[in-house]
Predict the 3D structure of the following.
Amino acid sequence: EVLLELLRSRERGAMGMGSGGGTRPGKKIGVWGMVVVGFFWVHGGIYGNEAMLMAGPPLYVFIMLGVVPFVYSLPIALIVAELSTAFPEDGGYVVWVQQACGRVVGSHHAYWVWVIYVVDAAIYPVLVAQYVDTMVPMSEFRRGILSTALVGMVTGINLLGTDMMVKFNTLLAAVSLAPTVLFVAIGMPRLEPERTLVAHGELDSSLLVSWILWLYCGFFSLGTLAGELEQPRRTFLISIGILFPAVLLLNTLPLAVALSLDDVPAHYSAGYFNVLARRLAGRWLDYGFQLGANVCLIGLYNAAALTAERSLAFLVASHFTGEMNAVVERRRRSGGRADALLVWLLAASETGVAPVYILFNAAVAASLVWAPYTRLVEFSMLLSVPSILLFMWSFVALRMKQPESLRARPFRIPGGLPTAVLITVVPIAISISYAVIVAAESFVPEPGSAGEGGHSARHKKGGARRHNAAGHQIRSMLGVIGAGVAVHALVVLLSARRRRRVEAKARTQGASLGSLPRSPGWEEAEEAADSRGPSAGLISSKLRLNDGSIDETTALNGGEPCVDSRRGGAYRTPSLRRPGSGGRNSGGPLADTISRLVPRAVATSGGYSQVPGTAEGGGSSCAPLMAEEDGGSPRAEGANSDLGSSLGGYSPGTRVRG
């Protein structure tokens, strides 16, 4: 399928931004954009990878580098391609988990993913500052200032829009890759493949496994920009067809060339590629590696920040879309400078996500760069395990819950449900194994403690480090999950208290309103409603006022309430007419009764008013309500907006929400 898509793209004459027909409105990222942005999700560069040789003999390292992509990364990439084309929405696997597991679990998972990536993003500016510090010594405070400045620079570029972000990533990818390509090209004539087959030496299995997983786990993030892609099926398949073999080659060839130049694993600490580059081609390639390493770290920060921004945006939007849209529309109509700024912050037009999320994540990352580097590295590693497990379950669950939609998916992994289950087995097993290793290291006594002797000094030091790191990972994961549960419980408690207050106030108001004189025809309306039952569409408790407002249950007989856009509908109006008005939307005898009873009946839904009789032929309109101060009368914008008349004998000036 990848080859077919490549041939089709050649026939259409485009593989990059703004390609061919079929581009959806607002879609900005084509194949080339996806490749350069995805490069930093799935790889980023070889800088620092040389330290893998300290985790085990070359043979073990190369076996892991060659096998894990096919049993771990490729299944993940194909799952991401299927779900991203089926649900083309920004956020990637936070969207799919919510689709499969519901809003509660989905919200917690989106929060976890945001924490994982915002902490991960903060690591890279710190590394840049440390790298610069080796060349130009700086105090800790100046390193923090440099890290913060890098966060601000990348944030400013992303605020210029998606097109500028893609161009920026193209530059970063080119500068990051150039030294590696030159190193491999110059070193290939000196390649000695037999040095990659050496099997003797000390093996640190937990370090090697965690390193390999870190190298190949980036394919999860490829769905982050699914809502901004041109022709998602074509874009994903071609991008994966380019990125997967590229990552495989970049992780193996430079390491093989390096071993051909120096086969002593003890020399391979982080930064040793620079030494080998100088030995191979001279000082200029050494400087190229230094520049490439720093540029690579900036690209990795940007990639992590993109995922964090969209995860947070999805989390907020899944709960407050209607409210935020209402604020944007109201402020847009106001036209003031402060209103224009607020609209810009909340409206996602050119940036793909509302600027408020970009700025908020930048503020969090800029704060985290001042934290200890080792704590940042260890903080969210284990938290990714439950996230991965939910991702895998969501893929299988969506296939079981929506079997009728499988044929309609633009891309589908062949083989049915058994294949879908089978391809998740290895990634799940690897993730659980990592969690077991971390848990074991956190509970096993440190080497050199009572009952354990005979360890080398290096082994004792490494064991103590792993023990402390494992404990920190477990505490961090439990802390993040616990904080989410606590916030959720608090929100539920506050919502329940508010609901009780509203109900109590409604009962009090209902009792006081019941003693007021009623307009003629009220008893007739009550009898009609009682005869039809509670589903007749008449408001609860006969025009009960809820918390001083007319609630959305006020939709009148025979009509449809305004549908909240947060639940996927458009605002619609009830079929209500005034007495004597004709038209096919007439509401029936009960509507006539209510129209006599309430000359200007008003129903609200999500801040919108239903104003009977504002359209010819007896139709109604949904108009935005502009709430006045307490004691004033609500007003509706648009035709026939005088809502100050009394409601069924009640005094005007009832305050209306919205």
Summary: The two ends are 51 Å apart (CA to CA).
